[in-house]
Queue: 2 jobs
Job 1
Amino acid sequence: MSGPVVVCTISGQHAEASEEVGGALTLGRRIAAQRGVELQWLVLGGGSDAAVDTARAQGVASIHRVSDAKVGRGKSDAIVEAVAQFCVATAPGVVVLPLDFDTRPLGARVAGRIGAAVVMNAAAVSDSGGRLEVTAGGYGGDTRGVYVVAEDTPCVVGLIAGVVQPETVDGGGEPAVHDVAVDLSAVDERIRVVQAASFEGPRLEDADIVVAGGRGLGAQENFKLVEQLAEVLGGIAAASRPLVDEGWIDSSRQVGLTGKITRPTLYLAAGISGATQHMVGCTGAKTIVAINTDPTAAIFRYARYGIVGDCVEILPELIRASKEKLQR
Ligand SMILES: Cc1cc2nc3c(=O)[nH]c(=O)nc-3n(C[C@H](O)[C@H](O)[C@H](O)COP(=O)(O)OP(=O)(O)OC[C@H]3O[C@@H](n4cnc5c(N)ncnc54)[C@H](O)[C@@H]3O)c2cc1C
């Protein structure tokens, strides 16, 4: 008999009402149902009132809150210790950790502490006759492999944040809420965060319309065309990674494997080639429109509407046409 499925999130880093957390819990619920075990939610850092509502909507059996002051954003040693102590006590079969910049290094450390297997960059997870099957990206997202975890082997799964769309359950029962006592007296953080990343404004993850620019824009000054079209359409400007690396736009606006996953109604990609690592972040869009000078560009395989042409000429036309249409 395998142990519970535990989804593990960090308060203040993973908003308890967010799509990323909802998606991780939905995935956890599906695995738990396949295995006939409970879904538990380990909230590191206490959590907010929203956690109970989310837990109810996601069919979580119990919330386990760790409120020790040593646990929180950027406190990796304390988090690893707290999760390890919780896992030793509850013997989970699967631990799901939504991945981001801060949690990425934690999966292997937790697995090492509890003697579990670990699979990172997971895009899909299911149970097949008692064995966990994890589909995960490899080689920087260029390929995907299916990992089959041996029966009765606990596994830590690092889930690509936002890859699973949350689905709520009707009539979810009231989750039990437990405060978990952990002993972190021996923890002395070895890594100090001197400046935490911060960003204010609308999030790509919530956007309905995204206009994204890529290296095909040619020059930084042309990125303002992307921003203008986004503004006219009431959307958000975004970019492929090279533009972020060049410092044209903040990293919070990068779409892709190492950026954000977005599922807007409209995703307009200007001068973007359609590399796998980029498309991971936007294939959930309802409609993709691509502008590219190269008719063989990979992005056209994903686009419902494609314009073969120079985006620096076409974007001003789209801005003008959109303004006209909206004024009518
Ligand atoms: C581990 C790893 C993680 C990565 N993570 C990400 C990620 O999260 N997000 C991401 O975006 N990338 C990521 N990358 C990089 C990714 O592999 C690509 O290199 C990147 O997406 C390419 O960006 P691009 O399409 O803007 O540029 P390019 O690949 O250079 O493509 C530019 C495109 O513009 C077209 N073009 C040129 N001129 C014009 C013009 N005037 N008008 C219209 N079209 C024009 C070209 O035909 C071409 O298709 C990652 C790579 C690795 C190895």
Job 2
Amino acid sequence: MGLWHRLAQQFRQPTGILGRLAGVFFRINLEGIDWTISLLEIQPTDHVLEIGFGPGHGIQQVARIATQGRVAGVDFSEAMFQQASRRNAAAITVGRVELCLGDASALLYPDNTFHKIFATNVVYLWKDPLVNLQELRRVMKPGGRLALYVIAKEDLLKFKVTQTGVYQLYTGDDLVRLLTQAGFRPARFVTKAERHRIGICALAEK
Ligand SMILES: C[S@@+](CC[C@H](N)C(=O)[O-])C[C@H]1O[C@@H](n2cnc3c(N)ncnc32)[C@H](O)[C@@H]1O
């Protein structure tokens, strides 16, 4: 396995020391994470789920807004679970945040649980995105909102790490098609010029 493929695998599911370093590297995603959270229009009483929380920056932001609601996160990386748990230790202790190790394809929540669900820089790492999106839709309340953030395909294509077979790159239109296929409506996307790239956020409702 080549260097770029190894790196891509670390971004997909961080493990060990390299995984912990990847968690530090994910700080470059803060701008996109904050933007995505703003598009969700989270209310203080909302129940919010983040999929693929990585080092837990998004969870931390949401916990500051959904002060009387519920903030949950699922990630299948033990290394990220530990980093995010440390970052959000105080909120976890008082029961305002719950993180768990798990896979987006099989969530341990009942149907119709969350008002808002989001995933940043995750969907292009999914082998079967349709199955995962259908599972997200299952746990979303009717009228709930989903936000999926990705970096634009043309920006990611500049990096060797995205050409290893691990990433599936998406345009905004691709995401809208996928969300519609998964049963969400009405799906749309918005873009944002960030410092070194274009961010795309696809939004949809149940
Ligand atoms: C590139 S990192 C992004 C982390 C963070 N969301 C950000 O924007 O910086 C991808 C994260 O999604 C998690 N992940 C990828 N596929 C997953 C899946 N099927 N179920 C749960 N977590 C997943 C990985 O473990 C990793 O922490």
